[in-house]
Amino acid sequence: MQEAAPRSSPIIVITGTPGTGKTTHAQLLAEHSPVSLQHINISELVKEKALHDGFDEEWQSYVVDEDKVVDELEPLVEAGGLILDWHACDAFPERWVDLVVVLQCNHTQLWDRLEDRGYPLKKIQENNEAEIMNVVLEEAREAYAEEIVIPLQSESTEDLESNVSRIVQWIEAWQKNQKLDSGS
C-alpha cells in the first residue's frame, strides 16, 4: 500500500459546547489563515446533504449519522485545508486531524448565549452541564493525541482575536515543519 503524500494544508477541528463561538472562530480563521482553508460547518452539512436519521423534536436538532458525515468528508481530507466546525470532535478519524481547538466559555455567559438563540430549557441545561463538566474537552483528549488538543477561552472579542492569531501562528509553524519533513 502506498503511503499518502503529506498534505500542504492542515485539518483543524474547532469544537466546543454549542454557543462557545465555533463558527465565528472558524470564519475568522478562514479569512486570516496564511493558507487556504475551507470552513465546513458540520451542522449545516448534515442539513444540506441529509446526513441524519431524522429530526428530534424534543431536542430541536437532527440525529446525525456520523458514518455518513465521515464518508462525505473523506474525499476532501486527502488535500487538507479544512476547518471542521462541530460540537463533537471524536467522530473524525485521528489520522485526519492536525489540531483540535476546544472553545470554552463561562457557563453563565453560555446560558445567556443559548437563551438568546431560543434553545429549549432542557437543551440549555444539558449544554450548560456539559460545559461545566468539560465534556467536549475530555472527549477530545480521549480521541486525539494530547499535544494536538488545545483548550481556548471564548468569552470576548479579545479572546476571539487572540485565539485566531494563536491558531494562525500554529499554522505557520505547521507549514515550516511540513517543509522540513519533506526536505524542501
UniProtKB/TrEMBL annotation:
Record-listed ATP binding positions: G19, G21, K22, T23, T24, R117
Gene Ontology terms, MF aspect: AMP kinase activity; ATP binding; ATP hydrolysis activity
Stretch list, region LID: 116-126
Region spans: NMPbind: 41-64
EC code(s) of this entry: 2.7.4.3
Gene Ontology BP annotations: ribosomal small subunit biogenesis; rRNA processing
Keyword DNA-binding annotated: no
Intracellular or extracellular location(s): Cytoplasm; Nucleus
GO CC list: cytoplasm; nucleus
Predominant cellular place of this UniProt entry's protein: cytoplasm
UniProt catalytic activity: AMP + ATP = 2 ADP; ATP + H2O = ADP + phosphate + H(+)
Pfam families: AAA_18
Keyword terms, alphabetized: ATP-binding, Cytoplasm, Hydrolase, Kinase, Nucleotide-binding, Nucleus, Ribosome biogenesis, rRNA processing, Transferase
InterPro entries per the UniProt record, alphabetical: Adenyl_kinase_AK6, P-loop_NTPase
Domain of life: Eukaryota
Subunit and interaction comment: Interacts with small ribosomal subunit protein uS11. Not a structural component of 43S pre-ribosomes, but transiently interacts with them by binding to uS11.
Similarity comment: family membership: Belongs to the adenylate kinase family. AK6 subfamily.
Stored PANTHER family: ADENYLATE KINASE ISOENZYME 6 (PTHR12595:SF0), POS9-ACTIVATING FACTOR FAP7-RELATED (PTHR12595)
Task of the protein: Broad-specificity nucleoside monophosphate (NMP) kinase that catalyzes the reversible transfer of the terminal phosphate group between nucleoside triphosphates and monophosphates. Has also ATPase activity. Involved in the late cytoplasmic maturation steps of the 40S ribosomal particles, specifically 18S rRNA maturation. While NMP activity is not required for ribosome maturation, ATPase activity is. Associates transiently with small ribosomal subunit protein uS11. ATP hydrolysis breaks the interaction with uS11.
Name by which UniProt lists this protein: Adenylate kinase isoenzyme 6 homolog
